[in-house]
Write a structure and sequence with these properties.
The structure is a homodimer. By secondary structure, chain A is an alpha/beta fold. Chain A is built from 12 helices and 14 strands. The first copy, chain A, is elongated and about 80 Å long. The relative contact order of chain A is 0.11. The A-B interface holds A 66, 68-71, 73-74, 89-92, 95-96, 98-99, 102, 106, 111, 113-116, 118, 130, 132-135, 243, 247, 273-274, 276-277, 280-281, 303-304, 306-311, 356 and B 66, 68-71, 73-74, 89-92, 95-96, 98-99, 102, 111, 113-116, 118, 126, 130, 133-135, 243, 247, 273-274, 276-277, 280-281, 303-304, 306-311. Chain A binds a DNA duplex through α2 and α4.
Chain lengths: 358, 358
Amino acid sequence: MFLLRRVCRPDGRLRLIVNKIRNMEEFASLSGISRPTVSKYFNDPSSVRQSTRDRIEEALERYDYRPNIYAMNQNRRLTKNIGIVVPYLADPFFAEIVRVIERRCIDAGFSPSLFSSHGEQALEIGILDNLRSLKPAGVLLAPLGRLSDKSAIESFCRDVPTVLFDSNIEGMGEAFVGSDNYSFVSQTVEYLHRTGEPPCFFEMRNPANPNANKRRKAYLSMMEKLGLEPHIIPVEGSGWRFEEIGRLGGLKVLEAGSLPTNTVLCSNDRLAIGFLSACYEKGVKVGRDKGCSLRVASHDDHPFSRFTCPSLTTAAHDYTAVSDHAVETLFRLIESGGTLETRQESLFPARLIMRDSA
Amino acid sequence: MFLLRRVCRPDGRLRLIVNKIRNMEEFASLSGISRPTVSKYFNDPSSVRQSTRDRIEEALERYDYRPNIYAMNQNRRLTKNIGIVVPYLADPFFAEIVRVIERRCIDAGFSPSLFSSHGEQALEIGILDNLRSLKPAGVLLAPLGRLSDKSAIESFCRDVPTVLFDSNIEGMGEAFVGSDNYSFVSQTVEYLHRTGEPPCFFEMRNPANPNANKRRKAYLSMMEKLGLEPHIIPVEGSGWRFEEIGRLGGLKVLEAGSLPTNTVLCSNDRLAIGFLSACYEKGVKVGRDKGCSLRVASHDDHPFSRFTCPSLTTAAHDYTAVSDHAVETLFRLIESGGTLETRQESLFPARLIMRDSA
DNA sequence: TCTAATTTTTAACGCGCGTAAAATTTTTCT
DNA sequence: AGAAAAATTTTACGCGCGTTAAAAATTAGA
């Protein structure tokens, strides 16, 4: 063994250096096991006999060798990489989901890579392009939605086993996992109607996210079902700065005094956060107490929604269920070789969170 | 050319398939250029004659070939990867910085990889461990701070060219780029003192982030300089759920009526967001108008701080300057082979943002 | 204890590309 | 046009590991 080397340090003292192990060959001979077996071990530790596994792991602790991932992935038909793509990472909603998903992937022995489209089509296309050459075992993709290049996503899904989440694009990917927008809206509308005036619906005129359209439809159908007249308040603006859009739209509506009811249901929490700040600015008191002139509710249970003033009544995603099910679906997809018999859509219901704003 | 292949589709129709190019050899012969030259091109397009560059790029469009990144990175002494590590990606502050940094790296021809320690030491260690085997050209690291395993970070910085940002750890990495905490606090304290009662300082008792300690010191020294008596309000709590910590701490303080002044300076915006929500809950009117009983200010200019109620007066990071300078420092570090003569610390001053809370 | 089944070893090839040296071609400049 | 400089081609090796097939060793089972 030439593993120990004497090195003369600047201060004159001698130091024993443990040579870094250069490759699997070296590590194998050091641990007294043949390289193919070691290779087999790294592919799947349970595929070798317990006794040899112990010997390898023992050597692993002594020499802390790690196989070269580039050489590994070059020759593997499939890597252990998993791509996670979200439309906007600066949105705490996605940041939170990503955190959970990432953890699950690591626990299952995969290497997750994070990507954010930052709300731009060009970036989403670029990410998918790069992802292809990463040869990932699978991808969890939350697409931009309306802004997505459908054909780019379609062609990507043909090449890479993909599970869509958060926002659905009809027919793409092997499965979709998300929240049931109807469940969100029906609960908030029902609650608001039961406890006061029926709500009008505050949203962006041209929402980027397909969930927004589903929520509008759910609002309309729910109001019809209750025999109530729907009112939609569309606000202008594009991009992902929802708070600012909600604030400006809110100021406009409040200044015009054009609200048809004293109850506003926002399409999502980030719009609501902006709307609430507009209310505060205009001195409009929000809440369900007497002395309040407006009720505001919303959807998503954004991580910040409990710190708004007043705290926001909202319908919560089942974050854990969505994340877990998305990951598990992807694992099944990977195990079954990249295709499922039929495209599966899983929708999880919302949970109404009653706080102070409505 | 054997690029075209007839394939019999399930429905019986024939389809012409353009064969995927398998490797650089094939692409080279197809474009009429030798493989070493093509390899050279991919390493640095400007390193080949313009005419051959044109020919390659022309062929590139026809055949859309992309070199195998694993094979590339295996043999390169240095990859074009850049690691970006932040302590908590769900914090919009980091999400925003990461977004800017990511873009700069891509524009410079690098492949950034994102990692979040999610506030956990074990994860940070694991990330650095994985990062090592990615052989990155360089790493931009925002460490956890107090929770970081100093020796793990030190050993990492010895192996990989690293620039620290956001929070400094004395002597580690080749450079540090961040904001000047003294500039933040001196501006807010001076402003608050000039326009009303001097502030007390609201912060976590055991902050994870080293910036918090610097801010406390800055507050103390600033108050002393102004000949004022400092008051520190330490609140309990650990982890990264600052809003909740600020809210609970705020409720406690407000209920006890123990605030020594009518002006509260929070260590950071996320604490302030929680504190403001506590004020609202307790019916304490915040702002500088008459009728308000409390002024609240803070530091960071968190993306959400302009949507609080009232909007938050705060000292803003120069996001762009910090991001740009961190990236440029890393690029210089990479170009100079991984070491700078001396460890450089760059601090950028804050900009006071006057809003409605103080 | 002996045989069959399982696991490991030996030996060898290939993956796709970086890289180096020498030979050749092309360009540049006087 | 001719020589020097620059770029490209040819040839060839190596990187670290996946993978395979046949041989050898170990284990399990009766």
